[in-house]
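Long-time lurker. I teach an intro course on protein structure, and each term I like to show students one example going from raw sequence to a predicted 3D structure in token notation. This year I'd like something fresh instead of my usual example. Would anyone be willing to generate the tokens for the chain below so I can use it in lecture? Attribution to the forum is fine with me.
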Amino acid sequence: MLLNISFPNFTFVNHLNIVFLNLKPKIKLISGVHHGQDIVKVVFDHNRKIMELLKEQTTARFSTSLGCWYINKDEFILGDFFTVMKPAAYIDYSELKNKSVQKHIYSKGKYKTSYLKKQLPQRSRVQIRNFQSWMQQLRFSDNTIKTYSHQLQLFFGYYSDKKPEEITLSDIEVFNIDFILKNRLSSTFQNQTISALKKFYENQYNRNLDIENILRPRKSRTLPKVMNKKELKFFFSSIRNVKHRMAFETIYAYGLRRSELLNLKLQDIDTRRGMISVINSKGKKDRALPISRRWLEKVKPYYRAYRPRVYLIEGQYPGKSISAASLQKVFERALITSHITRPYTIHCLRHSFATHLLENGTDLRYIQELLGHKSSRTTEIYTHVSNESLRNIKNPFDDMEL
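-- Reply from a regular --
Happy to contribute to a lecture. Here you go:
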């Protein structure tokens, strides 16, 4: 009704519009570059509703190094973004108005996720839903189900004129060349697509794709980032909230993955036996870890102060685990407060635990057990980042008299 009222004072109307817009949180869209790729940064103050929309209805990812969410420019469509986000926030896209940027975003030859998914035939949609149900029954992780479904929707949307049973290995190779490489998508994207197709055809058609005959990029083995003990001390000391500090101290004390901390229940902590059980972790495996004496001294007063009901670290609702987003926000804030500028992630605490164990002389086989690694090759990567091991190597240059 308010919009139908005629105001003679247009300045007053404009002022009202500004007031109404300011009631919503603000999202600012900014052009940028990340890992050599053009991106659109999605900048906003912490807001759970916005984050949920970004995760569930866009291809946005969060970057710790950038300190914000972002979308690859090749995947970004301003109109689609407005449709999803406008009910939740006021969108400032003034910094995207540069003509060259707009041309890049709207270029017809560019990769558009929403366009390809709209081309997906109904039959393929049904088969992908059936495939999702199969993965859920086999307890695939939520991330794997989401990733595989996304890759299949793009692939069969690209080949919308073909039935899935007509797809050949040469079609997959063409997709690699004309779609993945042409759009400068990552080697991870390429490998995920091939893995998704392999599982899909095994499930839906009882057909084994001859993967060995498809060229696949090698998986990069980047060295893990490790926080030294001085950085860890600054990091933990910067966290004033006892519950938040306990969360990150627990990750470091036991080399936990983030999901393992979020799922850690009070019943999994056996102080009499001096063991913590990590239940149903990656690879559907359980493992037992010896309790740290120093950690036990700190967890007792934490428990008395916060009285968690089910999980060791609970969020604002009793009996419910803290959310991954909240944990991430606290971690980023602690990095800033402790004046640590390197682009660390929560997972770096796990890397630091493993590396410091190695530097203390712990055998690699035990480290493998503590971390829950299936293969010793995964654990061996820490030998490349151990300062103690590297320092013990005698440099031949030191023997030269120059």
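Some talking points for your students: Confidence is low (pLDDT under 50) at residues 1-21, 98-109. The two ends are 88 Å apart (CA to CA).
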